[in-house]
Amino acid sequence: MNDQNNNVLEFKDVWKIYQMGDEKINALAGVNLNIQKGSFTSIMGPSGSGKSTLLHVGGILDMPTKGTLLMNGKDTSTLSGKEQATFRRNEIGFVFQRFNLMPQLSALENVLLPMIKPDLEKAKELLDKMGLEGKHNKRPSQLSGGEQQRVSIARALINNPSLILADEPTGELDTKNAEVIMGILHDLNKKEGVTIIIVTHNPLAAEFTDEIIEMRDGNII
Amino acid sequence: MGINSLSFKNLRRRKLRSILTMLGVVIGVTALVVLVGLTTGMTNYMKESTTNIMGDVMIMNSTGGGTIMSQSGSSFLSPEAVDELRNMSQLYNIKEEVQFFTEFNGTSIYIVGTSDWSQVEINGTPGVVISPTVEAMGYKIGDKITIEDQEFTITGTISEGAMGMGVLVLDTDKALPLNDNKPTSLTANTRGDPEVIKDEVENTVDGITVSTKSDMSKQIDDMMSGLTLFIGGIASIALLVGVISIINIMLVNVTERTREIGVLKAIGFTSREVLGSILLEAALIGFIGGVVGLIIAAILLQIAIMLFGSQIGDIQLVQMLPVWLIAGVLGGATGLSVLAGLYPAWRASRLNAVEALRNE
Questions:
Q1: How many CB pairs below 8 A link A and B?
Q2: Contact B289, B335 (CB under 8 A)
Q3: How many angstroms from the chain centroid is the CA of residue A220?
Q4: How far is A91 from chain B (nearest CA, A)?
Q5: Neighbouring C-beta atoms of residue A207, cutoff 10 Å
Q6: Which of A44, A153, B68, B146 makes the best surface tag, with the fewest CB within 10 Å?
Q7: Do A96 and B260 touch (CB under 8 A)?
Q8: pLDDT tens digit string along A99-158?
């Protein structure tokens, strides 16, 4: 089987070790994991089990201490800082628990921010698709939590990434809004084939995904 | 939507903070430009007023020192030298000037012989003109005044610029006999390059010094450049203080925006792009502060011209604000601000994206 054609992400014995005073903490302890193209996966587990670290390493925000991470078949450890940034810009879309929109920019400007050549029409189209018609020029502070998260999903999608990484995307939302956000992610995966990984504590959110991965003490169980 | 437009928006985000930071630069630039502008204006004015009246060359007795500051001294050109000079074909439009002190009513009076009355601000008519100090001694227009046993009828009074001295201004041909026909200096136009003719004249006639316009400008520059440097140095301290406050504020900004910087990195901006955006923000503070400072300085200089212009003569704002000063101050304020932004920008670019995102 030629897995390079099917796997967006491949973790091969990935370790992430933090030094906390005299103590060494294995945030990731030899993770082996394949994320297939078009899959919709949730990672669950208690706090400190390493799920956020897995997401950060998968998003090339953090480099493994040991082991190899392949993205679309390419070994990411050989990438320069600039190449890592380019990978993040083009291949990965991040969605955060606390939305992390730029407060000084409008919804539309936030969506355009990751684009090198701003495509206004595409950004407007994405915002409309997220149900934000008429709110393009609102600042994040003028939007509800659910609306802000929809803006951040539009921002994550703007460069057509191969992968969406969402860290507790429903963590700051009430049940109704959480369902709307998970519904959007579900549709993106099913209708447009976007590969999505979410980290969540919320079983209701995990129910929307096709596969649930449990983590304990830096490894998958 | 580039990262650089964020720099502009970030300035607007904390308006009061940005304005207060700029204020330091504004004060520094204003102080620098007003002080340097005033000395530069003085220099230009002195150059223009000396070179305007002198023709191409000015000829003086070589023991008189040959500098414009010593031309009121006691050395004069001999009548023989004047005759020789008048016979030189290279020189034309020769005008004699004479200035000397003499005894008058038990005190000293400065006699000025002029051939160009437009250089003197007077009430009344040209001819025999006295300064307010002489007026205070009881003389008025129409009175007789006796200098060196010669009697003159006063025709006017100096309205400006006598600086409290007893001065009597006469036509040169009336003033010369009072000084045994010895002029202080000769001005002339030259047929050919003044620098070449200067050497010819100095080699032909003994005991004289010839100054060209560029000699004069150089003397004034030499005299004023030290002063400009000193004043500029002191005013630069004000600008430096303003720039140091930029370091402080940019560090606060970067710390406050730790999380945003993490997001910028997560969505694909490189460390270098983050560094550039912080530097741009610092540069904007410097540049905008510089522009505002220049505008305030120009207004203050214009007010100074309106208040004091009549005493120092016809001076223009453009003489006080030469292009090199404007460009230098804007470039300097912007460049120093970029330097001030370097450390905060470097700190921002070094931020670990994961740590930054975790920042609450």
A1: 62
A2: no
A3: 18
A4: 10
A5: 11
A6: B146
A7: no
A8: 999 998 999 999 999 998 889 999 999 999 999 999 999 999 999 999 999 999 999 999
pTM equals 0.72
> Is residue B15 within 8 angstroms of chain A, CB to CB?
no
State which H helix or E strand residue A44 sits in.
strand A40-44
A104 at B interface, C-beta within 8 A = yes
- Cα separation of A81 and B343, whole Å? 20
Q: Is A80 on the interface with B (CB under 8 A)?
A: no
Point out the residue among B259, B268, B269 whose CB comes nearest to the CB of A100: B259
Q: Which residues of B250-259 are buried (b: 16+ CB within 10 A; e: fewer)?
A: bbebbeebbb
For B210, the enclosing helix (H) or strand (E) is: strand B208-212
Q: Say yes or no to pLDDT of B71 above 70.
A: no
- Residue carrying the six token digits 């630039």: B29
B123/B127 Cα distance (integer angstroms):
11
- Tell whether A159 lies on the interface with B, counting CB pairs under 8 A: yes
Q: Which residue of B has its CA nearest to A161?
A: B267
| ipTM score of complex | 0.90
Interface of B with A in 234-253 (CB under 8 A): none
Topology (CATH) of A37-64+76-220: Rossmann fold (3.40.50)
pLDDT of B1 higher than 70: no
